[in-house]
Amino acid sequence: MNARLPVLAVLLVSALGLPGAETRVETLALRETRQSSWAVPRENLAAGGGPLRVGHATYARGFGTVGGSRLELELDGRARALRAQTGVDDTAGALAAASFLVVGDGRVLYRGPWQQGGGPAVTVEVPLAGVRRLALVVDVRGEPFAPADWIGPVVDHDGAPPRAVPPEIRREPPPPRPVPAVPQFAVTAIAGVRPGHPWLWRVGVTAPGPVDVTVAGLPPGLGFDPATRVISGRAPATPGEYRLGFRASGSGGTATRDFRLVVGETLALTPPMGWCSWYSMSGKVSDAWVREAAAALLRTGLADRGWTSVNIDDFWMTRPGPDDARLARLAALERLGRVAGYYKAAMDDPALRGEPRDAQGRIRPNARFPDMAGLTGFLHARGLRAGLYSSPGVLTCGGCTGSFGHEAEDAARFAEWGFDYLKYDWCSYSLETGPLERADWQRPFARMGAALRAQPRDLVFNLCQYGRAAVWEWGPAVDAQTWRVSDDLIDTWGSISAAGFYGEERDAFTGPGRWNDLDQLMVGRIGWDRRLHDVQLAPDEQRTQFALWCLRGSPLLLAGDPTALDEFAVALLGNEEALAVNQDPAGRPARRVVLDVAREAWIRPLADGAVAVGIFNRDEEPAPVTVAWSQLGLATPARVRDLWRHAAVAAGANWTGTVPRHGVEFLRLDPVSLP
Ligand code: GLA
Description:
This protein is α+β, with helices and mostly antiparallel strands.
C-alpha cells in the first residue's frame, strides 16, 4: 500500500469532517469574539486571566468572556449539537447576572436562565441540524463587565468542523427621504456665553436650494455674516437673556427660529455636538486631516444640523522617545497595557519627537500641527468650534506631553490659540498621586478648571477620568460642563450596551451645563491611524446607541471619520427629530422603565410638554411589544410621532409594534400631562 495514503486520508477527513467528530470551541479563533472590552478571550482561562471557576468549582476547559459577548461560528449545516456548561465566573461582583444564548441563523435556539455569581454551572445541549451560522451569546445585567464562562463547549458534527468567523453584519441604506422644501434650522435654540467673552455660532440651515438667512436682535458687539452664516464677535458685558430671531427664505418657503443667547456663567446649555479625532486618526492626527474632517462635516450637511465641534484628541503634542523612564512607567499602567500594540506604533514615529515645551515653558505642538492659531482660525471662519486635549499628568494617555505643573500656562496657551473646548484625560496622573480619595480625583481637575475659568474666552471643560469617584456629583464644582462616566467604548454591542443601558441613577445629576459623557458615537468608519473599518455594529445597534445618547443628554461626539460616512450614517446623525431630543433646552434627565428582562423604555420629558420615549429590545430576536402609556406613567397622548420614519403613528392608550433585535422604536408623544 502507498505509504502516503493514510496521511492523505487524515488530511481529507480533517477538511471534510468525520461523522461523529467533535470540535472544542475554545481551540477556535477566539479573537473573533466581540465583547464589552478590548481583551480577547483565551483558551481555558477566565476573563481576568485566572482559571475558569463557577460555583466554587474549577474547570479545565472552555473560555471566559467579559460583559455582553458574541462568538459566531460558521457551520456547514451538518453539525449535530452544541454541548457546554455555562456560568458567571466566581470573580464576578455581587450584582452580576448572565444569561447564555445559542442563536442559529438569527433564531434563539437556547435561552439560558439568569445565572448569578457564585451559583452552579448550568448544562446546555442544543441540537444544531441545518444551522449554518451559530452565535454563542452572553447577555449580562447588574454588572456591565461581568465575567462569564463557557465551560467545555463542544460542537458535535458530521461534516466540516466549525470555524470562528467575524460576526455577520447586514448593512442597509437609509429609507429615501427628500430634503424638505421649506428650510430647516439646526435644532439647538439656546446657547450660553460668559459676559464680554467671544461668541461664535454657525446658523445651520438645511434646504434643497439657495436660501437667504437673516438674524435679528443681535446685541452690539456681535455681527452676522450672511455669506458664511456665522455669528461672531463679543457677548454683552451685562448678564441676561438676549432673544435672537433667525429667518431663512428659499424657493420652498420661509422658516423662523427663536434663539436665546444666555449671557451668564453657564456654558454648554445643551450637550456639545461634533466630532473627535480619537477613533479614526488617533496617533497620526494632523492639521491637514483635521481640516479634511471639518470640510466633510460641512459637505455632508452635518455642520448645518449642529455637528460643529471639531475636537483634536491625544497626539497633537510631542512625545518622548522609547527610552523615556516615565513613558515606561506609564506603559506599565493597566490602561495603557490594553492598547499596547497600538501605542507601540507611536514609539517609532519621528514626527512626534521634539522638545515638550519652548524656552518660556509653553507647550509645543508636534510637527503635524505647524500652526495652531491658523487651524482654529480655519474652523472659526466656518462657524465650527475647536476642541483640544490634554492630561493632568506629565504625559497623556498616549504618552505625549501633559499639563502637570503647567496648568496655568497651558490654559492660557489653549485660549490664545483660540480653542473652545478642552478634554482633560487622567491617565498618567496616577503616577503623581498616592491612594485615591475623592479629593485626589478632584484636585488636578479643579486646578485646570480654575485656569480655564481665568481665560478671556470660554473653553468648555470635559473631564475624562472614566467615571471614578462619582464625578457627576462634583464636575460642576471644578468648573466642568461634561464628564466621561465610563471607560473607552469599542464598536461592539457589549460595549455600547454597557454604557448606554447602565447607570441611570447618574442621570439625575445632568441638566443644562452639566452632562454625563457616555463617550463617542460608534457610527461610520473608525480605525487607529485612519486604517478604517466599518463599525462592527448593525444599523439597529447604531440607532440604539444614538437614541440612548439623545435620551440621556450625552454629548454627541462622532467617532467615525467624517470623510468616510455613508448615506446611512449621514441620515442617522442628521435626524433632526432625534437631535431635538438631545438638544432639548430643558435638559431634563431621562428615566428608565424596565418592561421585562430584555425590553426597556427610556423616557425624557421635553421643554414643550411633549415626551420622548425609546422602546428598546435588547434581545437576539425581533420582539412584538405592547406598551401601555400608563405603564410608563404617561397619559394618553394626542399625537405620537415616529422619529425614525418621520411620520405620525396611531395615537391610543398603547403602542404596539415589533422592535428589531438590538433595536429601538423612538417616539415623541405630544402633548401629555406628566405625573
Ligand atoms: C483615553 C481616553 C480616550 C482617548 C485616549 C487618548 O483612553 O479615554 O478617549 O482620549 O485616552 O490616548
